[in-house]
Design a protein that fits this description.
Length: 165
């Protein structure tokens, strides 16, 4: 996927992949939606094989998910703890997100941001990154009253949810 394409969330253009987080619930619900979308995709190995692995349109790629995880929040520069009470409900959510971010970014820096999906999925640290993303995803989804085991939404569905809010 190229930067600037309609479903890309890479730096350089505003992300259009916000979810349906209740506005009244979290002041920075758009940022939370991006983080949740990324964690959801990064935490699901079946999704990664069936969507990213075969280049299924509508879901971006692993690099897009990493950028959604950190682009507005700057979680690649500071702790999620900074956002407790805004993006994150409590320190436990923040700690789980920090762990996931660090594991995923470590791999991205080792394989390169534009590496093929297989380079991520075959990396020796990927299973641990997936586990960390899963723990964070489950905590955030559960706290939002949503089922963490649903299949991740496509970027188009996420954008439609945003427009409906």
């Amino acid at each position: 996927m190229e930067q600037g394409s309609p479903t890309s969330s890479r730096r350089g253009r505003p992300s259009a992949t916000m979810g349906a987080m209740p506005v009244k619930d979290m002041p920075w619900w758009r940022w939370r939606s991006n983080v949740r979308s990324a964690l959801h995709m990064l935490s699901d190995p079946t999704f990664q094989q069936e969507c990213w692995g075969v280049g299924r349109p509508g879901y971006g790629d692993v690099t897009d998910a990493v950028y959604r995880l950190v682009e507005d929040t700057w979680l690649d520069n500071w702790s999620a703890e900074k956002y407790v009470g805004t993006i994150f409900r409590d320190s436990q959510e923040a700690a789980l997100v920090d762990t996931a971010v660090l594991r995923v970014l470590r791999i991205m820096h080792q394989v390169g941001a534009d590496a093929p999906v297989a380079a991520y999925l075959e990396h020796h640290g990927w299973p641990e990154a997936v586990r960390a993303a899963r723990e964070a995803h489950i905590r955030l989804a559960t706290n939002d009253g949503e089922n963490p085991d649903l299949v991740p939404d496509s970027l188009e569905v996420l954008e439609a949810k945003l427009r409906a809010v």
